[in-house]
Amino acid sequence: MILASFRDFAKSELPDARLLELDARDEMPVETIRRMCGPELGIHLVFVPEEHGGMGGGAFDVYRVCEELARLDVGVATGLLATCLGSEPIRVGGTPAQRAYWFGRIAEEGLLMAYGATEPGAGSDLAALRTTATPIVEAGCTVGYRLQGNKQWISNGGVADACTILANAPGGPTWFVVDPHTPGFSAGRPEDKHGIRASNTAALSLDGVIVEPERLVGGVEGQGLLQAQAVFGYTRLMVAAFGLGAGWAALDRAIAYSRERVQAGAPLSEKQGYTHKLIVPHAVRLEAARAFVEETAERLDEAAADEPKNTEGAIAKYLATEAGNAAADAAIQALGGYGYTREYGVEKIRRDVRVTTIYEGTSEIMEMTIARDRWQLHLKTRGRHYHDRAAELEALHAAQPEVGAQFAALALHALAEVMEHMRVHRLTRHQHLLMRLGEFAALAEGTAAAARRAARATTGDLPEKSEPRLPAAGLAAVARCAARETALRIAGGGLRWVHGSASLADAELRVFEAALGLPAIQRAQAGALADLDAVSDALYGRAVPAAER
Ligand SMILES: Cc1cc2nc3c(=O)[nH]c(=O)nc-3n(C[C@H](O)[C@H](O)[C@H](O)COP(=O)(O)OP(=O)(O)OC[C@H]3O[C@@H](n4cnc5c(N)ncnc54)[C@H](O)[C@@H]3O)c2cc1C
Fold first, then answer.
1. Which of 29, 113, 275, 408 has its CA 20 to 30 A from that of 175?
2. What is the CATH number of the domain that holds 22?
3. What's the CA-to-centroid distance between 429 and ligand 1, angstroms?
4. Based on the domain organization, do 486 and 390 belong to the same domain?
């Protein structure tokens, strides 16, 4: 219902022509976004807990809404995300009174918020933060804090009604809620950005801004970085959904275009060299990422509040935003010269989605986060972790042989062996190798999720709110394509980096090659082309002959 109302609103208030105009004028549609957060649509209520007047949407609801927002425009989506991000420190760390006050106001007044963490010298490394919060003490009591410093790249920075600001108090990094009308607070000119030009991004200056003690989130200094960490599972899932929304928005335009565009006597949609390069692999990557996003959303909705699922959020963000970027880039190519012009929209999507691998943690920081966590699991389980996950997929394959679970298992076994060889040769001291591990782990886990999602689709067990684009047979073909490619990539990449850094002796190299299962992975490539054809048929709605079903 929410998605349908949003689509209706967007159709009348933010049609393509208006979005292109806003992009060209570098203008945020502030009033339209305020209306979206007003009684007419109330989209912001999805993010607000029920007890404070919202709809109390879970992670799954939030993912679906975020995808839909980004499908429309990642800039508009960012304007709404900033309110959600800005209020997150209060949700996870605020006192009951603070939560009631701020969420009550967001629900009723549709407050736009901003989240002020990044600084000119503190981006990926937030601990380097320089903004200070100095207590103002009178008669032995703290009667306020004086904030001094600068924030950089703050979404909604120039338009927000309230900002959460991370600053160093004597007890450590601490969040404060700041009213932008307070003396000493100022926002810089909106940044002239590559994309998401329908969003406002501004530097903030805090020059002796005085806040009352009640504005210290949670009432205790030094909790800021923990509170920021505690929301990553959830907020990174939102950005992952932006990757899916923008990637599919671009791909859908390319699919529609290719049905109509005739070259060399037939529509491009009939040309295998076109679809299997520019459309199908991107649909496969996006849907593998979606499988992981949906699993993470389900786990966040089930998890106790003290299980933030940071690594899962990082994997979801990494897979979906990288896939979204690649899909949007391919969509320009798929539209040829038209793709390169503003009018057809895909070049704007390409510019817009670019930010998703940068904000809320860059892709490189995601690789590091994933690698460190999964490395610990490898060590703790004495190398069993991914072999055990592979065994689960082998069991799934026995029950449902059509979803590529056996290929995903090959990828996971290979990953476990790459990790073990890295341990033996102490290779994770090379940062590049550690980050490649992060990449491989994300790909392997995405692939495994794709097999499980296809299996659930086959038995009709997908969550009710799961995105319904592809039928079960299409999802199974997607899962097989993703798993074959991932297995090859991990075995090939693992060999490259282990041997490339440790220069294994011949005998040891042969042992490693055997452990990777390369021959089995190569044999698993049989049927790869037919599966690309099957995904293509599913995307274009072409009937599959009964004999091949
Ligand atoms: C449009 C936009 C909106 C934003 N909105 C907000 C917002 O609302 N609130 C907010 O607080 N922030 C916001 N940000 C900031 C964003 O989160 C940061 O830009 C991001 O975290 C990266 O920080 P940085 O720009 O300082 O880059 P850096 O951290 O300097 O990184 C530069 C490059 O180095 C890489 N790198 C960094 N550290 C390492 C390392 N240890 N090892 C290897 N490679 C490394 C990075 O991956 C990146 O490729 C926004 C940014 C943009 C562009």
1. 29
2. 1.10.540.10
3. 24
4. yes
